[in-house]
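Researcher: Good morning. I'm working through a list of sequences from a screen, and I'd like to move beyond sequence-only analysis. For each chain I'm collecting a predicted structure so we can compare shapes side by side. This is the next one on the list. No need for commentary yet; just the structure.
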Amino acid sequence: MNEWTYWHYNREEDYELLRSWAEAHGANVPPPDWLPETGVILGNPEPVMLLFVYHDPSSEVALLDNLHIKPRTSISTIKEAIIYAINGPLLEEARTRGFSVLMARTMAAIVRTLLHTPRWLVLEKDLMAMTYIYHKEELQHEVV
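Model: Good morning. Structure tokens for this chain:
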């Protein structure tokens, strides 16, 4: 298993990295001002993944979204990075900002990984192949 580290996304310093990854994947990336300052870059030690925590002060839910992966990163490394991120820096980012639920919409492959991560509750919805994931320890209300 890799030794993971993270640092906070900085528009001026990290946007070019994000743009280059998106371009290598044949994808577009939003303009820098459209991305929140709540991004987290994961590395081992070189950067391999970037995720953002989106939130609105009127809700207790923080949403993980806008995942970007370094081209040619192995599936096993991606899984390790995601598990590290959601159980560490991204959860801490949400808590620091006063949110009690961390939610993500993701692909079935990531959901299968999280099913083996005991701190997560997975709620499958048949909406455009997306699944909502809540952090169990932070879930304060019954989910229906």
